[in-house]
Amino acid sequence: MLTLLHPPAQFPPGHVIHGWRIVKLVGAGAYGAVYKVEMNGKHYAMKVALHRATSGDAEKSDARLKRELGCLVHLEHPNIIALRALGRWPDFETGWRYVILDFVEGFTLAQWVEQVHPTAQEVARLFVKLAGAVDHMHGRGVFHRDLKLNNIMVRASDNEPFIIDFSAGDYSHAEDLTDAPLPPGTRRYRSPEATRFFRDNEDDRDARYEFKVTDDVYALGVCLFDVLTAPQPASDFPRTPVEGRAMPPDARVLNERVPGPLSDAVMRFIARKPENRPPSAEAVRRELAAIVNESGEEWVTPLHTLAPKPLLTPATGTDGPRPARSRRGLLVGALGAALAVAALVGLFMSTSAEKAPGVADSIESTAPQTPGAGAPLNALSPQEDAGMSQGDAVASPPLESSSPGVASPPQSPVQKESPAVKRAPIVASPSESPAVKAPASSGGRAEFLKKCAVATAAVALQMGCPSSSQVRPGSSECPEEARQAMAELRFWEGDAMVVTIDASQPGAMGGEGGIYSSGPVRGIVRKGVERIPAGTMLRGRVWVGERSILARYTEATLPNGRTYPVCIAIGEKGPEEADPGPRPGTVEFNRSMYGYAVKEWP
């Protein structure tokens, strides 16, 4: 079970809060923890703010849950999550705020696409209802401001959609909680005009973007675009980029199964200029309603090729047990990796022989360096995906400029329960362990490179062979000494803390992102636990892929100077989705994120 750092995210099953019996923790985000609760034999969702009103919380989780409450009391629609009760615990005046919502037994919209394999007609009908719900919101002065696949639930029994998680929402005359040019939200779903506003006012902390109807319309259009073009939006996270000044390819070009009228409609919904989009969600609803009953084989054929998927538990997003990987499969994978390293080393040997004398002798000095990687980290002081929705099984909070370190993980699903594998050596960065360097003489260098060429992938990584720092090692067990140290620190598997990924790029979750490349990194704990407090320094390594990021921290130095081996991962079950960075080999991702204690490296 996921546990976090505040009592609201540590209620055990069976605990009773004002008559609501805790069934289980569904997940937690930047602002709240969500539980499945029961009263009088009926299930509900309880969302609890992670801070009290007087806690001095920079993310204002109490105020944002109050804002969500303010949005929901204005709304009553069959496709918007319903508010049932509210309160504070344990004290009605000063305790943690909570709200009780309907509990949807089903899936996020992304998971629904993978599980149901809907037809174009089913998708169009679902979005007719969603557009009607968004229009209902706007008619009552409410903006969602974070519409995305994970903030839409689909009930398993009848495929009825529900818009959830209004923690980033806004309504007429609401108190301003934003201290940045843009409101909290998710970068992919921000309208082009919002992005332009931020680019023009990035350094003006007093500038405020005026969110409009067409911003929510755009976000709803991106949701539809992703459903039509991404066959595995929940687990195969790389999706066609929609950001930027140029339009993405038509949905029908990306997926020939999309009917032409539906493709034309969604491209209008995500037009670069707001005047080219429908002026309201009601206009979106009418446009989809006009084509939803069209006939033809392309309308009743599944939009995506059927593929076997792990069974998902409704409303949690966690998959069932994965089959154990065979020893043969592991050996084949290791051999393939070793051959790849050998090929890289061979190329390195052929080019290094032509170098003039005086080239630095250490392998580290010959490895290519990303600008900024390995630079001294002087700023060590700690510094919004908008909140926790019922559909998120794990925290989804969101970072800013270039940072050393992060390594290239294969773009695998960000899921729970990675398979058990045989323990392999942990890859240490040069700052974490003595670097293995080639002898200074040319003969010694050649001998060293020969050893690299015949080494297994894991051993080559440990030796510091050329190019190995860019290769993410596979899953492996956390070393016994690190598990013992984390037990001493009372930081158990699945526990989480908020970590600023790179201490030189401080910032809260949910703001603008940082820029990362593969390599060593020093992080800092922003919100810790009792024995690993804020200010604890973490040392580790980051890997970036084309649109993904993964970080592993192997050493923690507490504010009192004591150092412990640890296993803390950003990307608890695999790489996290990231946006392409401004330069090749970089990605943009949250400045701060949840770091999880793991028994096995993802």
Features:
602 residues; alpha+beta; Phosphorylase Kinase, domain 1; 6-stranded antiparallel sheet; 6-stranded antiparallel β-barrel
Strand and helix layout:
Blueprint: E1 16-17, E2 20-28, E3 32-39, E4 42-49, H1 61-72, E5 83-89, E6 96-102, E7 106-108, H2 109-116, H3 120-139, E8 142-143, E9 152-155, E10 161-163, E11 170-171, H4 192-201, H5 213-229, H6 251-254, H7 260-269, H8 281-291, H9 297-300, H10 327-352, H11 363-366, E12 402-403, E13 406-407, H12 442-454, H13 457-463, E14 476-477, H14 480-488, E15 496-500, E16 514-517, E17 519-527, E18 537-544, E19 548-557, E20 563-570, E21 576-577, E22 579-580, E23 586-589, E24 592-597, E25 600-601
Parallel strand pairs: 12-16, 13-18
Antiparallel strand pairs: 1-2, 2-3, 3-4, 4-6, 5-6, 7-9, 8-11, 9-10, 14-25, 15-17, 15-24, 16-23, 17-18, 18-19, 19-20, 19-21, 20-24, 22-23
